[in-house]
Automatic annotation (TrEMBL):
InterPro entries: Cation/H_exchanger_TM, CPA1_transporter, Na+/solute_symporter_sf. This is Cation:proton antiporter. The lineage of its organism: Bacteria, Pseudomonadati, Pseudomonadota, Gammaproteobacteria, Oceanospirillales. Its main location: membrane. It comes from Endozoicomonas euniceicola. Residues 9-376 form the Cation/H+ exchanger transmembrane domain. It is found in: Membrane. Coiled coil: none annotated. Keywords: Antiport, Ion transport, Membrane, Transmembrane, Transmembrane helix, Transport.
Length: 394
């Protein structure tokens, strides 16, 4: 397929489908995902090879844009209101779901414990690419501001993946090598990853705040600097296995604290860029879905995924137990923590590429998780966000 035609299908098709789904009171991103699924299904064999090489970077770039916008909208007072719940939401739901799925997959599919563990934690990761835009939209409309509900979900979702990917990596190492692996050392990688992600974010955030306050550069130049620096942070972060996306949010947070006028300008500009970036992101996520592969997992796969979500929901309720959140707000957090897409799309084929006999089934489960949870999660957030969250500032 010609790149120009593909560009038209992705951007115009994604935009048009988003408009159509909005007309029937569903989130626009759902239409974008469905367009991606259709493109992948009908044109998958004819897509240019260059797309495979660039799609990973394009998805990462879109995620960086929305996380910068998220960071630029989180003030210190809002973060304080989020408090302990935001911290607990980073690891309790993921741990509950990953552990439960390990047992469920061992029982239902006969996976050995290590393979069940890597599959369970791959499936357990929540998708910031789906959750963050939805929370920012609710935040912009004033929903859940009193108890900082969107911020709790934003903060949790940005770190949840660190835990899921770390446990996935531990189990993958155990499954693919005969060498002795120190699990305690691997677990130590979690706080190390968070710290090495945060520190550059703090340093760069403070420097950029100082620079933007003392310079008279145009806002478009500030956008250029912030975006390219954030991309560099993520690229380096991937090399050293740090939670670089958390650092990206930290940069935005510090800009709002130290250079508020620049942060407000930048937030507006990134909102405009996000209009295009979201279409590319969600269409590409849809294109990574292979319906035929998902069908291989069948009804049993759906039972496993649903079982994992039940335990994730229990984890969310425990993480918010001692907060000031109302019952309705806690239920909304359960709904908001369901969508999966980004990590499953990225890691679903890793086990197959590593030569594990269960690799094809693991990929099928990853695809099924995206198809099942992303649309339902988006619809749930869209419908219940305005019903369960109070409107108005603290």
């Amino acid at each position: 397929m010609n790149l120009g035609i593909l560009f038209f299908l992705i951007l115009f098709g994604g935009w048009a489908a988003g408009k159509l789904t909005q007309r029937i009171k569903l989130p626009a991103v759902l239409g974008m995902v469905l367009v991606g699924v259709a493109i992948g299904y009908f044109f998958g064999n004819n897509l240019p090879a260059s797309l495979n090489e660039s799609s990973g970077f394009l998805k990462t770039l879109a995620l960086i844009i929305i996380l910068l916008k998220a960071g630029l909208g989180i003030s210190r007072s809002t973060l304080k209101r989020a408090g302990l719940s935001a911290l607990l939401m980073t690891f309790i739901p993921c741990t509950f779901e990953g552990a439960a799925l390990t047992v469920i997959l061992n029982y239902l599919f006969g996976f050995d414990w290590v393979v069940a563990g890597l599959t369970g934690f791959m499936l357990a990761a929540v998708s910031p690419a789906v959750v963050v835009p939805s929370m920012l939209e609710l935040q912009s409309k004033g929903y859940g501001q009193k108890n900082a509900v969107p911020t709790i979900v934003l903060a949790g979702a940005s770190v949840d993946d660190v835990f899921a990917i770390t446990f996935f990596s531990i189990c993958l190492g155990l499954a693919t090598t005969e060498e002795s692996i120190s699990i305690s050392s691997a677990l130590l990688a979690i706080p190390v990853s968070i710290i090495t992600g945060l520190l550059p974010g703090i340093i760069i955030g403070l420097f950029l705040a100082w620079l933007f306050q003392r310079s008279k550069m145009a806002v478009v130049e500030k956008v250029l600097i912030l975006l390219t620096v954030a991309v560099a942070m993520v690229e380096v972060g991937e090399m050293i296995d740090s939670a670089a996306l958390l650092g990206v949010m930290t940069v935005g947070f510090l800009l709002l604290e130290r250079a508020e006028s620049s942060a407000v300008e930048l937030s507006g500009q990134f909102g405009k860029i996000w209009f295009f970036a979201q279409i590319i992101l969600f269409v590409l996520i849809g294109m990574s879905v292979n319906i035929e592969v998902a069908l291989n997992a069948g009804f049993t796969g759906l039972i496993a995924i649903a079982g994992g979500l039940i335990f994730r929901s229990i984890g969310v309720l425990i993480a918010t137990q001692f907060s000031s959140l109302s019952v309705q707000e806690r239920i909304f957090c359960v709904i908001a923590y369901c969508p999966k897409a980004t990590v499953q799309a990225a890691l679903g084929g890793v086990a197959l590429a590593a030569g594990l006999p269960e690799g094809e089934l693991i990929l099928a489960l990853a695809v099924l998780a995206i198809i099942f949870t992303a649309p339902l999660g988006l619809i749930g957030i869209n419908i219940f966000g305005t019903k369960l969250l109070d409107k108005g500032n603290a």
